[in-house]
Amino acid sequence: MTSQHIKIIAAVLLFFAALLGFGAWYAARAPKPAASAAPQTANQHHAVVVTVEALPAGVPITASQLKLVELPIRPEGSFAQVTEVVGRAPVVSLGVGVPLIDAQLATGLATQVEEGQRAVAVNVDEMIGVGNRIAPGDFVDVFFLLKRDDREIAGTQARLLLSRLRVLTYGPQSISQAASQPPDGAAGRRAEPIRTAVLAVPVDDVNELLVAQQAGHLMLALRNPADAAEPTAGRFAPPSPVRTPVAGQPPSREPLDRAAAGVALVGMAGSVATRSVVPPVAPVAPAVRPTGTAPSAATIEVIRAGKRSVE
Questions:
Q1: Number of H helices, E strands in the chain
Q2: Are 100 and 69 in contact (CB under 8 A)?
Q3: Distance between CA 83 and CA 184 in Å, rounded?
Q4: Could you tell me which of 179, 168, 150 has the C-alpha nearest to residue 269?
Q5: Do the beta carbons of residue 310 and residue 301 sit within 8 Å?
Q6: Spatial distance between the Cα atoms of 154 and 178, rounded to a whole number of angstroms
Q7: What is the pLDDT of residues 253-263, one digit of tens each?
Q8: Which superkingdom is the protein from (predicted)?
Q9: Which CATH architecture has domain 46-107?
């Protein structure tokens, strides 16, 4: 390498060094960026629902018991609208000025049970459950079959037991949550058989459903949700209660009192109308026509030389 080449390389290196120095000088003179918006964040407030009076556990919340306040932080699980909380019930008692959090409120199937009803599980299979075509939120009629046992059940019978019951769960699906999507590859596997359904049953009808399930055979009949027809109230006499009121007290019509009175299988079975059955007549042996006069004594027929004689 000649001296001329060395000079050229040195000049190039000096040029790049000068360029880097100029860049460093320019960066040092550039104005610093403005401070972050931390002060603005510190002054930001969030709308949070809080209580304005003490809330007892298990009692549905009303709008008058709540208000919106501005807080510098949003507690995890809090609510920004009063309408999100109205109608729900706290699982613990809450004081005044407490921000409501989702974990403090009742969730799950219990929130879907209306007042005066109870969630009751019944055994189902593909036949009972309309070929497993029932879904949470549907309405069903409950029929039951009792077979004659010559003891409490005088004769085989079937009838409508309860009408227009809402289905809360059917198998793994629940009305309180959307049906979960099957995991990857689950479509190729055999589904687990559905064995239970949970129905919303009036509290005074739970006894009859329990007795019918244990002593008979239930059948669920799916119905159109727009069909609101039900049996005529008071058309048929209710089953006799197991327990009777104390002396001087009239029978109570309150659902809980009727449930406490109980019901017996013999009362549910009632009387079965029977028709008189004429016992079958024993078959008469066909008459045999005599071919001749029966001999009065034993005789012997003798044939001699082609001639027949009786001795």
A1: 5, 10
A2: no
A3: 37
A4: 150
A5: yes
A6: 46
A7: 899 998 998 99
A8: Bacteria
A9: Alpha-Beta Complex (3.90)
